Amino acid sequence: MMRTYDTNSPEASARLLALAMVVDGHLAPSELQVLDDVPALRELGIDWTLFTAVLDELCEDMLGGTVRDGAIEIGPDLQDELLAEITDPALQRKLLAAMLNIVVADARVARAERLLVSRAGKCWAPEGVAQAA
Asked: How far, in Å, CA of 37 to CA of 41, rounded?
């Protein structure tokens, strides 16, 4: 069971960034570097202290129920719940751009990362996804 955060809060945003980093089962230094190199955190109202606290909470939550046989299980329903905490379209665009930067940072996009970013696009801009397809 994942904890909930206020809608459009820095914590909800930070969790999605953290999820983009760990959904493939590991945290690459290059993914953290993306947040250090671009103003993504500052633009989202997140500082390093908040980000690392939310990353820790995410890992605790995942260990409490979403890890099975060494694999992280963040299915579509749970992803939808986490993505639903972000309702502001401008914030959604900023987060999606930051998530994309994170998942390509280590020069490989794992299936779990691809599915998460795809899900975010479908949940946040279903009309745009349909038109772009």
From this structure: 10
CA distances to 6, 15, 74, 86, 107 from 11, in Å:
8, 6, 18, 10, 27
Give the 3-state secondary structure of residue 71. Answer: strand
Pairing of strands 67-68, 71-72: antiparallel
Q: What is the assigned CATH class of domain 10-132?
A: mainly alpha
SS3 36: helix
Model-level pTM greater than 0.85?
A: yes
Q: What region does 107 belong to: left with phi over 0, alpha with psi -120 to 50, or beta?
A: left
Residue 127: other Cβ atoms inside 10 A = 7
* Spatial separation of the C-alpha atoms in residues 53 and 78, rounded to whole Å: 20
With 0-12 / 13-18 / 19 or more C-beta atoms within 10 angstroms meaning exposed / middle / buried, residue 29 is exposed
Give the residue extent of every domain in the chain. 10-132
pLDDT in tens, 34-69: 887 767 788 888 988 999 999 999 988 887 765 555
